[in-house]
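User: Reviewer 2 asked us to show a designed sequence for the structure in our supplementary figure. I'm pasting the structure tokens here. Could you produce the per-position amino acids so we can include them in the response letter?
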């Protein structure tokens, strides 16, 4: 099973969605997925594990998770204590790029999480009340749709991101510890894949690196990440290619090689299958947006 690309309407006139105080058990959760929109998840109650990128986090009440665009993730709610959470999804076209000539970026909190590979904040009581209040106000605006409700939602989104950036500056002095989910060799192999992603790694080679049999490796990898190793690596390569398409002027053939694809035609086929468009059209769209 490859990572599922959650669909959002890329041409939506108001690209913001809120899943408010939803309670989910293991049977209700999406499999591994990624999407173009940014996501913020706040936990009210229950317990679970959050798999983001290549890390596992415990989920407790008062935790908030910052998930950048194009990041593989899924939640694993506890069977006996289902998760109650709110999830906010939005496209970054909603965000002001500049504010009175200052260099502050509302999206800094996402960039910081990606830089540190750390996506969790554990909030204190006062911070929890503040975040919950903002979610309540946002839900009220979206539900009632009073005059200029969209402008109110954009204002609240910016206030929300400003609050998170201030919290990061205050409490995120160093990366938070992650959960020791699964055997150590599994955690080590996820790091190994990240480092050697452009290589043509095989299941047998990875199993040898982990010092386990290929059958055991395959079974534990899927149990731990929700994906088989081939689909996991392919999805990671596609995400890397997307980043290079937007951040460099390299031609598609070079990006295919730098992302670990063995040929340009193969890269085109896989990219279109996972993203829904060719690499060239994906890059061109970013230039015109």
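Assistant: Here is a per-position design you can include in the supplement:
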């Amino acid at each position: 099973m490859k990572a599922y690309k959650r669909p959002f309407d890329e041409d939506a006139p108001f690209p913001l969605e809120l899943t408010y105080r939803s309670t989910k058990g293991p049977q209700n959760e999406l499999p591994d997925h990624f999407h173009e929109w940014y996501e913020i998840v706040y936990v009210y109650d229950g317990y679970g594990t959050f798999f983001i990128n290549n890390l596992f986090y415990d989920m407790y009440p008062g935790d908030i998770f910052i998930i950048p665009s194009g990041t593989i993730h899924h939640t694993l709610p506890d069977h006996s204590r289902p998760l109650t959470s709110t999830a906010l999804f939005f496209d970054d076209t909603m965000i002001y790029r500049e504010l009175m000539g200052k260099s502050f970026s509302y999206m800094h909190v996402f960039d910081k999480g990606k830089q540190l590979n750390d996506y969790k904040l554990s909030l204190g009581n006062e911070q929890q009340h503040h975040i919950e209040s903002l979610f309540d106000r946002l839900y009220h605006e979206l539900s009632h749709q009073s005059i200029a409700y969209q402008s109110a939602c954009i204002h609240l989104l910016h206030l929300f991101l400003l609050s998170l950036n201030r919290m990061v500056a205050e409490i995120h002095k160093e990366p938070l510890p992650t959960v020791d989910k699964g055997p150590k060799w599994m955690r080590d192999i996820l790091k190994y894949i990240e480092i050697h992603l452009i290589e043509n790694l095989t299941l047998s080679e990875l199993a040898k690196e982990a010092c386990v049999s290929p059958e055991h490796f395959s079974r534990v990898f899927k149990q731990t990440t929700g994906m088989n190793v081939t689909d996991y690596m392919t999805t990671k390569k596609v995400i890397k290619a997307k980043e290079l398409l937007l951040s460099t002027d390299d031609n598609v053939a070079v990006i295919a090689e730098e992302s670990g694809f063995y040929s340009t035609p193969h890269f085109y086929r896989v990219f279109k299958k996972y993203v829904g468009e060719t690499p060239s059209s994906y890059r061109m769209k970013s230039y015109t947006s």
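For the response letter, you might also mention the following. Residues 39 and 89 are 5 Å apart (CA to CA). Confidence is low (pLDDT under 50) at residues 1-5.
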